Amino acid sequence: GNSVTQMEGPVTLSEEAFLTINCTYTATGYPSLFWYVQYPGEGLQLLLKATKADDKGSNKGFEATYRKETTSFHLEKGSVQVSDSAVYFCALRNDYKLSFGAGTTVTVRA
Amino acid sequence: EAGVAQSPRYKIIEKRQSVAFWCNPISGHATLYWYQQILGQGPKLLIQFQNNGVVDDSQLPKDRFSAERLKGVDSTLKIQPAKLEDSAVYLCASSLTGQANSPLHFGNGTRLTVT
Q1: Which pLDDT value is given to residue B35?
Q2: Are the beta carbons of B42 and A100 separated by less than 8 Å?
Q3: CB within 8 Å: A96 and B55
Q4: 3 state DSSP class of B87
Q5: Is A10 on the interface with B (CB under 8 A)?
Q6: Facing residue for A49 by CB, picked from B44, B56, B103
Q7: What is the 3-state secondary structure (H, E, C) of A53-93?
């Protein structure tokens, strides 16, 4: 079946630090991959997506590359801000079903 | 465009009571989903509709949970009777199609507390 494993949090960083959140997946076929973000008190928002191998999704300074050979979709940002404090979810969509990882809580301190 | 609307935002009930949640998806979105998000976990799919038909309800506890999407637009999710372990945020989402590359758009959720 489909599953998503992402690094456990919480992660605490200083402003302008480099952020990486690891995500690996198990799936049959050719899934689409997503990162969703949940800011405090808000609903889930799509951050970025990649629909085929070697695609790079990017948004708001975040990037993630669909690596089929390592079944990974790691999220990166070169210089985080306090406003990036949130819970980040890696997700996989195969056929019609969207499966989420457990989420990684990121706190950025000024 | 208007996002996915959910109500109520918060609900507190006692165990064995019943509760209903409402969702209005983005206009034109054929696919609607209900997810349960327990604190500290990722969202878990409860049920998925394509227009007004059910695509997947394999993880819906059918002895107490029910959902409908009359006319293929709005949807309601009901719990009767509620248990303590039902305390969670219930998220509604919609997508333009059910295809893998069609992203889901989420509402703000309903936070349910069962005491």
Answers
A1: 96
A2: yes
A3: yes
A4: coil
A5: no
A6: B103
A7: CCCEEEECCEEEECECCCCECCEEECCCCHHHCEEEEEEEE
C-alpha to C-alpha distance for B50 and B38, rounded to whole angstroms: 25
What local confidence, expressed as pLDDT, does residue B1 receive?
A: 66
Q: How far apart are the CA of B63 and the nearest CA of chain A, in angstroms?
A: 23
In tens, the pLDDT along B11-44 reads 999 999 999 999 999 999 999 999 999 988 889 9
The region, left, alpha or beta by phi > 0 then psi within -120 to 50, assigned to residue A71 is: left
Task: Give the integer Cα–Cα distance in Å for A28 and A70.
Answer: 14
pLDDT digits (tens, 9 = 90+) for A65-107: 999 999 999 999 999 999 999 999 999 988 778 889 999 999 9
Record: contact B41-A96, CB cut-off 8 A: no
pLDDT given for residue B92 in this prediction = 97
* Closest chain A residue to the Cα of B106, Cα to Cα: A44
Answer whether A10's CB lies under 8 Å from A106's CB: yes
pLDDT at B82 over 90: yes
Chain B touched by A65 (CB under 8 Å):
no
**A3 at the B interface (CB within 8 A)?**
no
- The whole-number pLDDT of residue A42 equals 84
Among residues A55, A56, A57, which one has the least CA distance to residue A47?
Answer: A57
- In this structure, the number of other CB atoms found within 10 A of the CB of residue B7 comes to 12
